[in-house]
Amino acid sequence: MDAIGVLMMGPMNSYLEQELDKRFKLFRYWTQPNQTEFLAQHADSIRAMVGSSGAGASADLIDALPKLEIVSSFSVGLDKIDLDRCKEKGVRVTNTPDVLTDDVADLAIGLMLAVLRRICQCDKYVRSGAWKLGDFRLTTKGELGETYVSFLSSYYVRTYLCTSLVAIHLRIIPYSSLELLQALGERHALFSGKRVGIIGLGRIGLAIAERAEAFDCPISYYRRSKKADTNYTYYGSVVELASNSDILVVACALTPETTHIVNREVLDALGPKGVLINIGRGPHVDEPELVSALVEGRLGGAGLDVFEKEPKVPEQLFGLENVVLLPHVASATEETRKVMADLVLGNLEAHFSSKALLTPVV
Ligand SMILES: O=CC(=O)O
Predict the structure, then answer these.
(1) β 275-278/247-250 pair status
(2) What is d(CA 134, CA 75) in angstroms, rounded to the nearest whole number?
(3) From the candidates 19, 240, 265, 310, which is the catalytic residue?
(4) Does residue 223 carry a catalytic annotation?
(5) CA distances (Å), 64 to each of 26, 93, 223, 351, 358, in order?
(6) Which of 21, 132, 243, 291 is 20 to 30 A removed from 220 (C-alpha atoms)?
């Protein structure tokens, strides 16, 4: 029997590529000098396609492959696959959910800390030798959320702090009994206690929420409808969510409805002390508006793993200290990518041996 033809859309993982090569007749689409000629010659032998977050299955390509049976995506996001066309043509679709959730959520928290504590600038400071000339500046009271500023300057807190300090000075209360005072002091932390708002409370959004809770961050979220099984605060609009958040995280799927879900109004609602974290997709955010908000100081900072036209990143961001820019690496660890690759292979094997798909979408 002829080997099954599989079309791989781009270079995504060398282990996956090797395994596909061993098990199938693998066609590497990105290496074809003339893709139209390639399709004319091989379309009839291609029964499966392997896409990723970068390259998937457009309606035109699906139409050009009359024998296509399955698209197995090396990604959780499905925005590069024309799902409607797949449904119409009876083409099955699978993705790689769950296995990357921890890595992506970890990275979202990493971005929050990196932006607020200027971790990248601190690293540059040490490497450049600047530390020998003086300490790094403090990361900064100016970025403290309004809630905590008003909390700490409130009449009751000030009275409590003054009374406690006098009591310590006069040795009326010992230092060891000052747990409450220390607890109050912790509210000063630049990240701990910040209000985290999440757009999309699916698997990844929830994993981010659980991690942020461990930093004492109150969590709220936006999605189309309120989630029944959570006590996190729900807002019915992204603007409302942004107005009530110090950190706004994009963690929803990219669809026509969520394209530019973070627009100028949302950025202005987040405001000059707010931080945007995007581990979703670039087109979730109106990028020119994001750049203007950051350049004009209307937004406090941003941690971005994804961009509208990857790998192009707006150069105006390169000089900004309050921005951390990553090359779409949220799930990019050896461990996770290996499990993702195994899921892609497992889905193909299941399909071609008429078994149930492991992670079916269509
Ligand atoms: O961006 C990564 C993915 O969708 O898996």
Answers:
(1) parallel
(2) 45
(3) 310
(4) no
(5) 17, 17, 36, 21, 27
(6) 291
